[in-house]
Amino acid sequence: MKIFILLPRIPYPLEKGDKLRAYYQIKQLSKNNEIVLCALNDDGKVDEQRAFQALQPYCSSINFIKLSKPGILFGLLRAFFKGLPLQCGYFYHRKAARKVDALIQKHQPDFLFGQLLRVAEYLRYKDLPKALDYQDVFSYGMKRRRDIAGPLAKPIYNMEYQRLCRYETAIFDDFDVKAIISEPDRELIPHPKKNEILIVPNGVDHDYFKPQQQAKKYDIVFTGNMSYAPNVNAVEYLANEILPLVWKRLPEARMYIAGANPDPKVKKVACDRILVSGWLDDIRDAYAQSRVFIAPMRIGTGLQNKLLEAMSMGLPAITSPLANASLGAQPDVEILVGGDAETMAQHLITLLTDQEKAQRLAQAGFDFTNRVYDWGTSTAVLESAMQAYL
User: Fold this and answer.
1) Which pTM does this prediction carry?
2) Buried/exposed code over 75-91 (b: 16+ C-beta within 10 A; e: otherwise)
3) CA distance to 76, 77, 83, 98, 163, per residue, from 80 (Å)
4) pLDDT along the chain (390 residues), means of 10
5) Within a 10 A sphere around the Cβ of 101, how many other Cβ atoms?
6) Per-residue pLDDT at 210
7) Which of 42, 55, 77, 83 is deepest in the core (most CB within 10 A)?
8) What residues contact residue 254 under an 8 Å CB cut-off, 6+ apart?
9) pLDDT confidence of residue 17
10) Quick check: 341 and 364 in contact, CB under 8 A?
11) From start to end of the chain, where are the E strands?
12) Residue 278: how many other CB atoms lie within 10 Å
């Protein structure tokens, strides 16, 4: 079938979770289908030519639509007065909508596929079979951000939370196929028929993220897009609450924080024992040069790709109950789980001082990710559901 895929961002480079998911789904779907890709672009720094070259092997047509700053401002104002989520307004522009309509008319696809509710307004009223990948529960993620926000930001987050709740429900029946990343996320969708949503987990490229033999320069590593609020929160949690407890026992322990676009709050934690790298051309180096991976997530939703990558590369991993609810690894066997700073710190101390336990956990985590998380298997679920509507 010919699938028209609409994305809120150009899915390359793979420094964000939604880009990574889109890239690998396109790669898998292209094996049996013709892909017409349309991606919005709000980032003037993206190298469109490099992205085009990376995506060209999998798409018959690639189209990037730039979103101007005046258009973004108008979209936000329009969403505010219409009662839509602001992030929908940010990505929905009438000029862009006309271009999307023209592309659909030109290519005559069999199926429409939108990633994230941010693009739902472009597709929801189209008279064609269509799918929406919720990916994460944006409403609940916003609720968690609201709960820790300061007094000035809290009303804004609360407004967006309420609007997202309504919108996630409103668009449900507009799409024939709905997908989401994990069962815990599906349970948070505010719709009585939420069980109709397909569980389509992420995978991991096991040929790329595999164990490497490199000298260990760092004891602990945390990776991700470092401008993303849940990652920024995790970095502050590490630097201010977890690591000071580790340093009481292991004063020489070094932390590596690796990832694109570090927020000022992330840069602020850098010191002689905490390295903040910024963008890396090959994130595998951060994993391979470190002994233990930790993802102390306290807010956000969805499956943490960083955990899949680290475990696939053979690192023993530590995370929070929130993150492991989506991952589904067996605590104390395939991963260590900590619900507070003291437990997280003790897990780090254990893995840094007990090499046998660290190796045992790393092997079990490696086996788990290789057994459970595969892009081909997960995307096949989505593809099969789409074919059923033709």
Assistant:
1) 0.89
2) bbeebeeeebbbbbbbb
3) 6, 5, 5, 22, 10
4) 97 91 97 98 91 98 96 96 96 96 98 98 97 94 90 94 96 97 91 95 94 95 94 96 98 96 96 93 95 94 89 98 94 97 98 98 98 95 95
5) 12
6) 96
7) 55
8) 217, 218, 219, 220, 273, 274, 275
9) 87
10) no
11) 2-7, 34-41, 61-66, 111-115, 130-135, 177-180, 198-199, 218-223, 255-258, 274-278, 290-295, 317-319, 336-337
12) 13
CATH number belonging to the domain at 218-372, selected among 3.40.50.2000, 3.10.290.10, 3.80.10.10, 3.90.79.10: 3.40.50.2000
**How many helices (H) and strands (E) in the chain?**
18, 13
**pLDDT attached to residue 148:** 85
Query: Within 10 A of 158 (CB to CB), how many other CB atoms are there?
Result: 16
pLDDT of residue 45: 84
Q: Dihedral angle at the C-alpha atoms of 44, 46, 47, 52, nearest 10 degrees?
A: -120
Question: Range(s) for CATH 3.40.50.2000 in the chain?
Answer: 2-203+374-387, 218-372
Q: Is 385 helix (H, G, I), strand (E, B) or coil?
A: helix
**CA-to-CA distance for 245 and 361, rounded, in angstroms?**
22
- Tokens encoding 337: 């789980």
Q: How far apart are CA 302 and CA 206, in angstroms?
A: 20
Quote the CA–CA distance of 380 and 29 in Å, as a whole number: 8
pLDDT given at position 329:
97
Question: What pLDDT was estimated at residue 279?
Answer: 85
CA-based R_g, the chain, Å: 21
